From TrEMBL:
Residues 223-488 form the Aminoacyl-transfer RNA synthetases class-II family profile domain. One of its GO terms (cellular component) is cytosol. InterPro entries: aa-tRNA-synth_II, aa-tRNA-synth_II/BPL/LPL, Phe-tRNA-synth_IIc_asu, Phenylalanyl-tRNA_Synthase, PheRS_DBD3. This is phenylalanine--tRNA ligase.
Length: 500
C-alpha cells in the first residue's frame, strides 16, 4: 500500500472527508494521482467515493497577456505621449484598448489626434485586477463576483472548465491494511477450511464476453445444413455429389434427353476441353446399349426419338448442368439390388450453366434434388412429398403448373408464395421419371420414381433478404456479412416475414 493510500485511509478513518482535487493541491501532485488512489480504495470498499463537479477558470491567451502586461486600455494609456498621436495610427495599433479608453474617458479624440486625459499612475486597471484575484483564488469559480466573471468571459480573458473530483470517506471495508482478495475458490481452501475467512473479489456477472472474431458459416451452407437435416428427418438418404465434371452420358443420355436437345449445345452447357472425353469404360456396356436403343427405337410402348445415337456425343465431358445426373447414377446402382428395394434419396450441391449473369442468375448455383423410388407411386405421391418438404422449410402454400422436361412425364413446376414480393414465384421443378429413362437404367417394371429439384439460392435469398445473387455467392460477397449473419431457423424466419 502506498504512503498516500495509507494517509487517506488514516484520515478518512478519523472522520475526515477528503476531496481528490484538494488533496492533489495539498500534496502538490497531479489530480490523476489522487483520483487513482480513490478508485483503487473504493474498488475494495475501503472508502466510499462521491462524485463532485466543480467549475474553475482557465486563462485564455488574451487573459495571460492582461495578467502579464496589463489590460489593452492601460497599455494604450501608458504608451500614449502627452502631446498625443494621430487617431488613424492608434485605431490601428490599439483597436481594443482605444474603445475601452474612450469609454473610461482616459483619452480624448480631436482633429484627427488622440490625447491622454488621465494619469496612468492614478487610475486603476480594473480588468487586470479581477484577473489577479482569480489567480490568487486558485482560479476557483467563487473567487470573483458573477458580474466580474461575466466581464472576463465577454472580453475573452477566461474560459470555464468543469472538473470532476471525488469526495472520499470511510467505507464499509475500511482498514489500514489491504487484504489480498482471492479470485477463485480452490480445492485447497475447501480442504483446509480457509475459505470461511477468505475474502473474495466480487464477480462481475454483467461483464460482456470477449467478441468472437471467428468466421461463420456462409448463408448458403447454413441453409444447406438445415435442408439436409429436414430431408434426413423425412427419411431421405444423401447421394454422393463429388463429381462436378460429368459425362454427357449421365447428365443427358441416361435421362433420355435427345442428343440434339437445345440444352446440350454451347448456350447452356460448359464443355470441358481437357479431357474432352470420358472413357465410359466403367459403365456397364448393356446400359450403354439399352440407352442407345431407347433413344433410337424406344421400347415398352414408346417409339423413341428415331435418330442415330452417337457414343462420341455421350462421351463429351461437361460441368454437370443439374444434380439429376447424380440421380441417374444412383438409380442405376439401386437397380442392381435384387429384389428391388424402395429408396428415398436427396442431394444438395453445385451445378453449372452457361447463363447470362444478372441479378438472379450466376453461371453456377446449387441444386436441392430429391427422389423417391417405389412400386405404384402416383402423381398424388409427388404432390404430397413436395408439399411436405416445402412445408418443412416454411413454405406452406405451394401450387403446381404443368411443365415439360425430357426425362419426366408428367412434369410440374412448383410455385411458392413469396412473402416479400407478395406474389407466386417459381421455386422448383418436378415430375415422374419417364419409363424410357427407368427401363435402360435397369429398374423393374412397375417401379416409379418421383423427383423434384430446386435452386438452393432462391430460398436462401428470401431468408437472408438478399436481393442480388452476387451479394450471396461468388467472389463479390462481403466477408463481413458472413461473419455477422445470424443463424435463424428457416421455418421461423419465413413465418415471421409472412406475418408482416
Ligand atoms: N433437373 C431439373 C432442373 O434442373 C429439376 C428436376 C429434377 C425436375 C427432378 C424434375 C425431376 O431444373
Amino acid at each position: 500500500m502506498s504512503e498516500l493510500e495509507l494517509e487517506v485511509l488514516r484520515r478518512v478513518g478519523a472522520g475526515e472527508t477528503l476531496n481528490t482535487l484538494d488533496l492533489a493541491t495539498e500534496k502538490g501532485v497531479e489530480h490523476a494521482v489522487t483520483s487513482g488512489v480513490v478508485r483503487t480504495l473504493a474498488a475494495d470498499e475501503m472508502v466510499t467515493m462521491d462524485q463532485k463537479e466543480s467549475k474553475c477558470f482557465a486563462l485564455t491567451k488574451d487573459g495571460e497577456e492582461t495578467l502579464a502586461k496589463g489590460s489593452p486600455e492601460m497599455i494604450l494609456l501608458q504608451t500614449l505621449p502627452a502631446e498625443g498621436a494621430p487617431l488613424a495610427e492608434i485605431k490601428k495599433a490599439h483597436k481594443v484598448g482605444m474603445g475601452h479608453c474612450m469609454k473610461k474617458k482616459w483619452i480624448q479624440a480631436q482633429d484627427g489626434m488622440v490625447k491622454p486625459v488621465a494619469d496612468p499612475t492614478r487610475v486603476a486597471d480594473e480588468l487586470a485586477d479581477i484577473l489577479k484575484r482569480v489567480q490568487a483564488g486558485s482560479f476557483a469559480e467563487d473567487s470573483i463576483s458573477a458580474d466580474e466573471a461575466k466581464t472576463l468571459k465577454k472580453r475573452n480573458q477566461v474560459t470555464v472548465i468543469k472538473t470532476v473530483s471525488w469526495d472520499m470517506s470511510k467505507g464499509p471495508q475500511w482498514a489500514t491494511q489491504r487484504v489480498k482478495k482471492e479470485v477463485a475458490l480452490t480445492k485447497e481452501m475447501l480442504d483446509s477450511g480457509s475459505w470461511a475467512s477468505t475474502q473474495f473479489k466480487p464477480v462481475n456477472l454483467r461483464s460482456l464476453g470477449v467478441t468472437n472474431s471467428a468466421g461463420y458459416l456462409h448463408p448458403l451452407m447454413q441453409v444447406r445444413t438445415e435442408f439436409r437435416k429436414i430431408l434426413i428427418g423425412m427419411g431421405f438418404e444423401e447421394m454422393p455429389t463429388n463429381r462436378w465434371v460429368e459425362s454427357s452420358f449421365w447428365n443427358f443420355d441416361a435421362l433420355f434427353q435427345p442428343q440434339q436437345h437445345p440444352a446440350r449445345d454451347a448456350h447452356d452447357t460448359f464443355f470441358v476441353k481437357e479431357p474432352a472425353e470420358a472413357s465410359l469404360a466403367n459403365v456397364d456396356p448393356t446400359l450403354v446399349e439399352d440407352v442407345k436403343d431407347m433413344h433410337e427405337h424406344g421400347g415398352g410402348g414408346s417409339i423413341g426419338y428415331r435418330y442415330d445415337w452417337s457414343l462420341d456425343e455421350a462421351k463429351k465431358n461437361i460441368l454437370r448442368t443439374h444434380t439429376t445426373a447424380v440421380s441417374s447414377r444412383m438409380l442405376h446402382e439401386l437397380a442392381k439390388n435384387k429384389p428391388f428395394q424402395p429408396a428415398k434419396y436427396f442431394s444438395i450441391d453445385r451445378v453449372f450453366r452457361n447463363e447470362t449473369v444478372d441479378a438472379t442468375h450466376l453461371a453456377e448455383f446449387h441444386q436441392v434434388e430429391g427422389l423417391v423410388a417405389d412400386y405404384n407411386l402416383s402423381l398424388g405421391d409427388l404432390i404430397g412429398v413436395i408439399k411436405n418438404f416445402f412445408s418443412a422449410i416454411g413454405i406452406d402454400n405451394v401450387r403446381f403448373k404443368p411443365a415439360y422436361n425430357p426425362y419426366t412425364e408428367p412434369s410440374m413446376e412448383i410455385f411458392g408464395y413469396h412473402p416479400d414480393l407478395k406474389k407466386w414465384t417459381e421455386i422448383g421443378n418436378s415430375g415422374m421419371f419417364r419409363p424410357e429413362m427407368l427401363k435402360p437404367l435397369g429398374l423393374p417394371e412397375g417401379v416409379r420414381v418421383i423427383a423434384w429439384g430446386l435452386a438452393l439460392e432462391r430460398p436462401t435469398m428470401i431468408k437472408f433478404r438478399v436481393r442480388k445473387i452476387k451479394e450471396l455467392f461468388g467472389h463479390k460477397i462481403s466477408l463481413e456479412k458472413s461473419r455477422t449473419s445470424q443463424l435463424p431457423l428457416f421455418k421461423e424466419h419465413v413465418n415471421a416475414s409472412s406475418e408482416k
